TrEMBL record:
It comes from the Bacteria. Residues 133-418 form the NADH:quinone oxidoreductase/Mrp antiporter transmembrane domain. Gene3D superfamilies: NADH-ubiquinone/plastoquinone oxidoreductase chain 6, subunit NuoJ. Keywords: Antiport, Cell membrane, Ion transport, Membrane, Transmembrane, Transmembrane helix, Transport. Residues 703-784 form the MrpA C-terminal/MbhE domain. Its main location: membrane. It is a multi-pass membrane protein. This is Multicomponent Na+:H+ antiporter subunit A. Residues 626-689 form the MrpA C-terminal/MbhD domain. PANTHER family: NA(+)/H(+) ANTIPORTER SUBUNIT, NA(+)_H(+) ANTIPORTER SUBUNIT A. It is found in: Cell membrane; Membrane.
Length: 804
């Protein structure tokens, strides 16, 4: 490929963004095979990682790359690959390849398919950058990019209010978490002196023993809990189901919702191992697990059912990370992979059923196995792994969860009971999803059901098959997946003990059997449980989702009230506030810093002359100054609007002459052009008004505005004269003089300052001028008023009159 192994790390997150930019063009050129073409990008990156990085990671090696970003502040765009980040990256790319294929068929014929696939690839690139970033600022940047791209994907069908609401809700909550992540990174940097996560791992004692440990922990947990939908911040995730099904399959299995899990896993060596860490993660993880499992039983929509099980699974992962034992962390790695396989497959199955049968309601589905046999096989393969039956990777995940919690301690027993109940709820839901749509009597559906296209079947079959392949090859899976991932999280070598051998005397087997039996009970009583839960919701009358709506709309109304108060549209009041603030800004420092101490009752003329330096002007300079004063007086006493506009130009011209006399011809030219354009534009705009009229102003307006004018003018004059009495600090001007030519390659210091040293400032000023010019152009082109056609009389053409 022509790239070194280290350099290829940067290619992984960058390539999807490049493909995203080209996606609309590819759609126009490739047409029906767009999904197949664009899927080559993540597939190639998957092969790149698989061939070049898996072997080093299994031997405990790590690879790092740093690209200069902001060297003056010690910031590099750093990437880091170890067992944990590699597992996440491979899962993102593997599932992403199948999702891109699926999306190409699911949205076949959609005129915005290219745009949609571009969003999906950008989403993939953001998530890859997140899991590969070593720099915490880079991590934050990619973290926010996942929020932005998910907003675009969830709200893709922006014509529907539900889609817009779901997108906004996800963006608001995850961005709050993003701000927590940024703040946490800054505080962690202040404690450790490094931005790199790989270096932070060696400073865990420094962080844990700091007085700011609680703050850092709270900020990172806030980021992780919002992103990974932990109770009570879970409610945005079901509403994200308004996105097209390919988005749901990708978002719920390997991308955004797993970002919080990744962050907690990465920070385990730094923040973990304390009572508060364990207590918070186990408590909130357990609540989320049970809440999500029960929430899934309340639903009848396949996507909503699966969304609620995702909440439960995320709670399960957070709980295991909180436990922090070797077995628990091993379970995190195995269950992450198992969940990614079966959840992406089941969402694709739900989309295929909806696509080919016209509904996702399980109460309206049945007997689809005959019409959609391949889809049913994919659903069965995935659901069996979700249930955790032997020969699936889900079985090993469940075994690892229970391992280490059979110690006999009451706390361990309580956590074990939660895990058994949570897994039973997930098993019952898995049975429900596998059987209700496909088995039993065939029910009439809005569309005549038939098998989905190959591109939509590839995902469920491949991912379901991989779940079984990993289950029947435990030695390979343990050596290449479990050991590198768990070792990277714990920071120490971990051994795999996955085996197909079944020990009838082992309590783990009997705990699994208990889980399956409870799952069967949940499945058989699903209808009754659903009714009871819905009655409970109706009696409760509120939810976190409703609380969000109340808070959000209250914030919107408050913002509207503030906007109406501050932006009332009265230009006169705007100017009063601006000049009042200017007067305060001028005199407050003068008073507080002793700038007016010379104004005393006993002050002598000599004291005044020492503190205030009056200008020593030549006669013609006094004449120009007098011209400005005359222009001012002419504006004040102008007998018409036209004379006031022209008199205003006299002051600007006098100011341009002052610039010219004191050696600033470029400023003089600029000022003169501005004045000419201002007079012309004002004259054109004012043609809509009577230019021969004079605006009458009450005395109180004269008094108010005159006082403000005198205060501001006096403040500026006093400040400038006092500045002239001090010693001029030439360090800045000397710097510009010395560096203008060698660094900026410009002999005109003023131009160099504007273009190089203040380049962004100048760009902003140009943007403001351009915006003002566009606004002026719009005003000039605006028609004086809409022309109404006379109404058509009744009886002429049989139509009533309409006003155009």
């Amino acid at each position: 490929m022509g790239l070194s192994l280290d350099a290829s790390i940067a290619l992984v997150p960058i390539a999807p963004f490049v493909a995203a930019l080209l996606a609309p063009l590819v759609h126009r050129l490739a047409g029906p095979v767009t999904g197949w073409v664009l899927a080559l990008v993540p597939a190639a990156l998957f092969v790149l990682l698989l061939v070049n990085f898996v072997a080093p990671m299994t031997h405990g090696e790590t690879l790092a790359l740093a690209i200069g970003w902001v060297p003056s502040h010690g910031l590099d765009l750093a990437f880091y690959v170890d067992g944990l980040s590699l597992i996440f990256a491979l899962t993102i790319l593997g599932v992403g390849t199948l999702v891109i294929l699926y999306a190409g068929a699911y949205l076949a014929g959609h005129h915005h398919l290219g745009r949609f696939l571009g969003f999906m690839l950008a989403f993939m690139g953001a998530m890859l950058g997140l899991v590969l970033s070593d720099n915490m600022i880079g991590l934050f940047m990619f973290w926010e990019l996942t929020s932005i791209t998910s907003f675009l994907l969830i709200g893709f069908d922006h014509s529907r209010q539900a889609a817009r609401r779901g997108a906004i809700q996800a963006l608001v909550l995850t961005n709050i978490g993003g701000m927590c992540l940024l703040a946490g990174a800054v505080v962690a940097h202040q404690l450790s002196g490094t931005w790199l996560l790989s270096e932070l791992r060696g400073m865990e004692d420094l962080v844990r023993q700091s007085a700011l440990y609680g703050l850092v922990l709270a900020l990172f947990l806030g980021a992780a809990f919002t992103k990974s939908a932990q109770f009570p911040l879970h409610f945005w995730l079901p509403n994200a189901m308004e996105a097209p099904t390919p988005v749901s399959a990708f978002l719920h299995s390997a991308t955004m919702v797993q970002a919080g899990v990744y962050l907690l896993s990465r920070m385990t060596p730094v923040l973990g191992g304390t009572e508060v860490w364990t207590g918070l993660l186990v408590t909130f993880g357990a609540l989320t697990l049970i809440w999500g499992g029960l929430g899934a039983l309340k639903q009848t929509d396949l996507k909503q059912i699966l969304a609620q099980t995702t909440i439960a699974s995320l709670g399960l992962l957070v709980l295991l990370i909180g436990l922090g034992s070797t077995a628990a962390i091993a379970a995190v790695v195995v269950y992450f992979v198992a969940h990614a396989f079966y959840k992406a497959a089941l969402f694709m199955v739900a989309g295929a059923v909806d696509h080919e049968a016209g509904t996702r309601e399980i109460t309206a589905l049945g007997g689809l196995a005959d019409k959609m046999p391949v889809t049913f096989i994919g659903a069965a393969l995935a659901a069996l792994s979700m249930i955790g039956l032997p020969l699936t990777v889900g079985y090993f995940a469940k075994e690892e969860m229970y391992l280490g919690l059979v110690s006999g301690e009451w706390s361990a027993f309580l956590v074990l009971a939660v895990l058994v109940l949570g897994n039973a709820l997930l098993a019952g839901v898995g049975l429900l999803v596998m059987t209700r749509p496909f088995l039993g009597d065939e029910l009439p559906t809005p569309k005549k059901p038939h098998e989905a296209p190959v591109a939509m079947l590839a995902g469920p079959i491949v991912l379901g098959g991989l779940g079984f392949l990993a289950g029947i090859l435990p030695d390979w899976f343990g050596h290449d997946v479990l050991v590198p991932g768990a070792s990277a999280i714990l920071g120490q070598a971990v051994e795999s003990h996955l085996s197909l051998a079944i020990n009838l005397a082992s309590p783990l087997l009997w705990l699994s059997i208990l889980t399956w039996l409870l799952g069967v009970v949940v499945f058989r009583q699903a209808t009754r449980i659903r009714g009871a839960l819905r009655r409970f919701d109706a009696a409760l009358g509120w939810s976190a989702d409703k609380v969000f709506d109340v808070c959000y709309f209250a914030l919107v109304r408050f913002a509207g009230a503030v906007t109406r108060f501050l932006h009332h549209g009265n230009l006169e009041y705007y100017l009063v506030v601006v000049f009042l603030a200017l007067g305060i800004a001028l005199f407050w420092p003068l008073v507080s810093l002793g700038g007016l101490d010379w104004i005393t009752p006993t002050a002598e003329l000599g004291d005044w002359s020492q503190r205030l330096v009056l200008p020593d002007l030549l006669p013609y300079e006094w004449a120009v100054l007098l011209l400005a004063v005359v222009g001012l007086l002419a504006v004040l006493i102008a007998s018409s609007r036209l004379i006031a506009i022209l008199s205003l130009g006299v002051q600007g011209t006098a100011l341009a002459l002052i610039f010219l006399l004191f050696g600033a011809p470029d400023l003089a030219f600029t000022q003169l052009m501005v004045e000419i354009l201002s007079v012309i534009i004002l004259t054109i705009v004012m043609t809509n008004l009577r230019l021969d009229a004079r605006d009458h102003r009450p005395f109180e307006d004269w008094a108010r505005d005159g006082t403000l004018a005198i205060v501001c003018g006096a403040g500026v004059s006093l400040l400038l004269m006092l500045v002239l009495t001090g010693t001029l600090d030439t360090r800045l001007s000397d710097f510009f003089t010395q560096t203008s030519v060698p660094i900026a390659h410009g002999a005109n210091i003023v131009n160099v300052i504007l273009v190089d040293y203040r380049g962004f400032d100048t760009l902003g000023e140009i943007s403001v001028v351009m915006g003002a010019g566009i606004a002026i152009l719009a005003l000039l082109r605006r028609r004086k008023g809409s022309v109404a056609t006379p109404p058509v009389e009744a009886g002429r053409g049989g139509e009533k009159g309409q006003e155009v």
